[in-house]
Amino acid sequence: MFKKDEAGSAVLLTIFLAAIIIVVGIAFNWLVKEHVRTAEALKEKAEAMTTAVSVFDTLLFAVLTGTLASNRIIVSDSSLIGFDKIPLNNKTLKVRDDIAINVQDTNGRISIYGGAGSEFQRLIRLVDDKSNVAVITDSVNDWTDADDIARPQGAESEYYKGIGMPYTPRNFTMQYMEELLLIRGMSWELYKKIKPYITIFPSTTGFNPASAAPVAMLASLDISEDGRKILAEYIDRGEDVPEELFYNITGRRIHSLEYDLFAPSRYLEITVSYGFLKNLYTINAGIGLYPTASAPYSLYYWKEG
Question: How far is CA 46 from CA 49, 51, 96, 99, 197, in A?
Answer without folding.
Answer: 5, 8, 18, 14, 32
